[in-house]
């Protein structure tokens, strides 16, 4: 009991400042002996006030201050996650509480400190947000509360046992945002373009008046003769098609942007895209490629597919080795008998890197509809637009322009062999992939 008392008792800066002032006053009494009695009285008064302060802090029992941390059971990677702290003052007098959280080491936050004033019996909620940039387990320590009375000479340390481990999953918050806007038919506010989808299957849907852009081959001449205006047949949009997100986990996906690696951007995008594809009636699956290892989650449109995707994406990590695209093309050729849409998330920084993998990409595109998604280096793009006034700056800008030009050449090179491509900034990846998918559906290429 006595050990716990000593471990929880701390003195404040105010106490040490007063002690230092009294010490200096004692030095002065060496030159003015008549002031010694005053110094002694001040010392006694300070010690008495400290004892009174300690008595009031510890007379309230075991739970003078209730501290409770509330947060979600899992965090969303790359998003702001809210954590709330609930404080309840059970003292009979107002107190000042200093809260110091033991945050996970991944955040590298060592100066978390919040100060709050509580009246007697008052309850207050404090909140803060954390943005994880890595998937995995995060260990939260204790919530340390230091309670001070109005005297402010000492403080009592209260630390409830609330250590917990939180798992950080791919960005399910982004997924919920898309689901919410999709449910309310407001995806245009997020930047998703509404595509005019006309199915080319043999299942008839309805007849409507001809409008510019309709396929003239679907003209219904009998309906046209009856109505006296051009009428066209519409058919049901193709559904239950296989769509796979192929994620490259090689070293080229380790490059960071705004704290997240390219792999994390690809994972967050594939999660949102898969949910939209399921809503469109297609079957979604996932393929991961690392060195010579190819893992496949078969495409399905079951309700449990999103949970399977989330759990599979949670554990993915980049590798230092370069991915084997030959292994990928051979594996997918043997596993997939049905023509599918393959969205390959990868990155090429030079034409040489693309040329090395181009034969295998062409082989994939021969049997499937292949969309190669790679990333625009936004930092280099900023350099190309900077005003430079030195020779070194000119050299840097020319090199940056060369890299940016190579990216555009890669798009042309892929197009030359009939391979679809998407060059996008990392922060706009999800939006651009969803728009591209809707475009392919509208053109009935899948």
TrEMBL record:
**Pfam families to which the protein is assigned, alphabetical:** DUF58
Q: Does the keyword Transmembrane apply?
A: yes
Q: In its UniProt entry, what is this protein called? A: DUF58 domain-containing protein
Instruction: Give the residue spans that cross the bilayer.
Output: 12-32, 38-58
The residue ranges of the DUF58 domain are 208-371
Q: Which UniProt keywords apply?
A: Membrane, Transmembrane, Transmembrane helix
Q: Which organism is it from?
A: Chitinophaga rhizophila
